[in-house]
Amino acid sequence: MEIPRIPLGGWIEGALTWLTSEYSMVTRAISRATQTGINGLNDALMWLPPWALLLIIVAICWKVANARLAIGGAAGLALIWNLGLWNPMIETLTLVVIATLVAVVIAIPVGITAALSERLYRTIMPVLDFMQTMPAFVYLIPAIPFFGIGSVSAIFATVIFSMPPAIRFTTLGIRQVPKELIEAADAYGATRGQKLVKVQLPLSLPTVMAGINQTIMLALSMVVIAAMIGADGLGSEVWRAIQRLRPGDGFEAGIAVVILAMLLDRLTQALSKERKS
């Protein structure tokens, strides 16, 4: 006796087909707006000479962190420039910045609501578990029918993939605020909004920043993988090196990704410590 196979894949394909046909106008509008943002930021960064942008980034590192990060950032960016990977690095940075901004704008309100609502918290935690254990490549599949091949699909997949840490850490930070402080705010007659803005969010900010840091790192990793669906940047350099069997070029692009990841990681950690102090 054979057990009938559940046609889960067919149901998913049918749902994607229905969504892409029924909401094609919405996806086209989102695609145009996203592509405009990508082109605008990319053109603005490309307009600056490499040496000028390098000096700006070094100055930010010096101001936000310390001289050691500024010197290390200058050396790393100079190496990327020397390897001829400056433009792909800018394209990757553009995708990471836009995807992170979109993910944070969605994740922070969801995390705050989940922290304040026990019912939403219990509902969203299994969803986040599912999202974080799903293989990264799977997120590329629904992006293509919605937005086609290219950077917009990369942004869509990156936002979905990188959002869970920001939601989790925001919820965790707010729920870990000591009850004594909440009770003190209640005793002074603070409203729910005042408690959130003046007590819970300031105290949870280091944890929220840690979530944003993780979101940036996941966004960078996903943007590199998204080269498989036509995303520009350092990921496309790695993918091209694989296709042409050029390991040297692949390692150069990989080193550039590592430098960019370390720079973004140290900057966000420095921002978190600055806010905490």
UniProtKB/TrEMBL annotation:
Where does the UniProt annotation locate this protein? Cell membrane
CDD domains reported for this sequence: TM_PBP2
Query: Which terms does the record give in the GO molecular function aspect?
Result: amine transmembrane transporter activity; carnitine transmembrane transporter activity
- Membrane topology term: Multi-pass membrane protein
Instruction: Note whether Cytoplasm occurs among the keywords.
Output: no
Q: Which residues cross the membrane?
A: 44-62, 69-86, 92-116, 137-161, 208-229
This protein's UniProt keywords: Cell membrane, Membrane, Transmembrane, Transmembrane helix, Transport
Q: Which Gene3D superfamilies match?
A: MetI-like
**ABC transmembrane type-1 domain segment(s):** 89-268
- GO BP terms: choline transport; glycine betaine transport
Question: Which Pfam families does UniProt cross-reference here?
Answer: BPD_transp_1
Q: Name one GO cellular component term.
A: ATP-binding cassette (ABC) transporter complex
Q: Which family does it belong to?
A: Belongs to the binding-protein-dependent transport system permease family.
Q: What is this protein called?
A: ABC transporter permease
Q: Whose protein is this, by species?
A: Halomonas salipaludis
